[in-house]
Amino acid sequence: xxxxxxxxxxxxxxxxxxxxxxxxxxxxxxxxxxxxxxxxxxxxxxxxxxxxxxxxxxxxxxxxxxxxxxxxxxxxxxxxxxxxxxxxxxxxxxxxxxxxxxxxxxxxxxxxxxxxxxxxxxxxxxxxxxxxxxxxxxxxxxxxxxxxxxxxxxxxxxxxxxxxxxxxxxxxxxxxxxxxxxxxxxxxxxxxxxxxxxxxxxxxxxxxxxxxxxxxxxxxxxxxxxxxxxxxxxxxxxxxxxxxxxxxxxxxxxxxxxxxxxxxxxxxxxxxxxxxxxxxxxxxxxxxxxxxxxxxxxxxxxxxxxxxxxxxxxxxxxxxxxxxxxxxxxxxxxxxxxxxxxxxxxxxxxxxxxxxxxxxxxxxxxxxxxxxxxxxxxxxxxxxxxxxxxxxxxxxxxxxxxxxxxxxxxxxxxxxxxxxxxxxxxxxxxxxxxxxxxxxxxxxxxxxxxxxxxxxxxxxxxxxxxxxxxx
Length: 471
Fold this sequence. Notes:
Elements: H1 7-15, E1 21-24, H2 31-37, E2 46-53, E3 56-63, E4 66-68, H3 70-77, E5 82-83, H4 86-92, E6 111-115, E7 123-126, E8 133-138, H5 139-145, E9 150-152, E10 155-157, H6 187-196, H7 205-214, H8 221-228, H9 232-242, H10 256-264, H11 266-278, H12 292-313, H13 321-330, H14 333-341, H15 343-355, H16 361-369, H17 373-383, H18 388-396, H19 407-422, H20 435-441, H21 445-457, H22 459-470
Parallel strand pairs: 3-6, 6-9
Antiparallel strand pairs: 1-8, 2-3, 2-5, 4-10, 7-8
């Protein structure tokens, strides 16, 4: 990595004699934050999205405050392109930091398509493969860099999210397979409906039994075994988790009693069973960044890591490992409720998030549906009388600066999401470490590396659990 710019970008600018200014700033999660810290207008910034189809890769370049219009791209190139997965982007831009895609394709041998309006900007700024600096140059210089790139109207302003014309957000060829989208509600209608909801889905019977057990101070291991053993799939998931290397237990674990008394403990098994049982009401679509497969994979890893951090470092903060596991498992539960209440809107949100992976999901959902998964999830947890630390974690896990009741759990989940996003998992914040959360929890990143590594080492077991939950 070049100390100033990504290697290929640096070389490309130097060999073409392109003059530029460098704006250094502390690392950021989004281009909007980078613009603010560099005291630049967001309208000056451009971003890039790497797309692919069977014919190869294409780099799309557009203003930072715009969304891609996939139908316009199809008309221009005659190709049904879709955003690539994170590993593909990482290997293509190997000299760049994860998640930073420079808007110059030539140094990487990429076919490049640029939104026409970019060339009308007097000043163009962009991330040069690093999250802690911006490169700015004249519009003429940026135009020279893209002398061989194709130009077309391929993007729309972010404000079109509020119009919610479905065809603007779906990938080409998918409209015919989306009859559910005909049922979209107006944004104002959804806001009113959410505010006026007076009947939320009932908690599943198994979860109600477990919650009563949790609130019974006289409950013991045998009571828990009796309840959980009534659900063979729940029993299998708990045994699988107890057998992972995450707990360094060398003996055999063949029964629920052994999993509770020898490995996991009463509280952890109770909270784990409660979280898994509570989810059985919801059957959302499987695919996409918000679908069941991605949801449960993120939940399984998040729960394990939250529990690990609470077990190792949570004593001074009164972080209970079992409650930490439950908060990590359920923190994105609002997505399940959204899909249950508003299937069309959830389907659309899933597609928009997939097409715009670098725009924070909370921004997209607030513009698109007028509410967030955090408030929906917290409301359901309150209705179900879940523990208050869990309710708070659901409501505040995207708020780095939250300070109040149970802020240790909210901060823990925020931190877990950030750590997992660094590994390519989930919808957590990108960019610089969450200093405020680390300070509040009294932690250093170096203390967490071993736990993250231990969690990733158990990929096979956690992935198997996620697949079973999503099935």
